[in-house]
Amino acid sequence: MSGRVFFYLKLALVCGVLLACPIIFLQIWRFVAPGLYRHEKRVLLPFTIVSTICFLGGAAFGYFVVFPPAFRFLIGYSSKILDPMPGVSEYFSLALRLLIAFGVVFELPVFMVFLAKMGLVDAPFLRKYRKYAILFAFIIAAILTPTPDVVNQFFMAAPLIMLYEVSIIAVSFFAGKTFFGFEKKDSAS
To answer: Is the overall model pTM greater than 0.90, yes or no?
Structure first.
């Protein structure tokens, strides 16, 4: 009985946050916008659109590609004596964690471009440390996946590695472009 109550509470909370997001973002924009220059405001709209698309793409990838084999793996622990009977609350919690984890992970290219525009990383730096990024991707995948099997770890690490490569391409593409009105300073001058 308590599982149903908590499920309805979680569902109401998630739906409430999703429905309130446009209003929350509007209030944040109204707070931040007066302090921004015109060129900074022009950069924010594409940044917001790309970030939203990346998050939704990651959430969709997590739900449609990773979640079915992960759930089958968890159900596969049944025996003749014990049958798994996951409740709707457990199913919802697992799906929600995967959606959020993959949504956040798919923000990597946006984050890397932001770091590059701040002058903290560049494409040669990212290429140089690619092998460490691959190792880090598998470590993160081992932590974030809800199951201990290698298949789901690979399903999480492979997109991370591909997103890292996309980040290198994006950083290379946006290297000479202005961002928030500042040109990247040349170290020779």
So the answer is: no
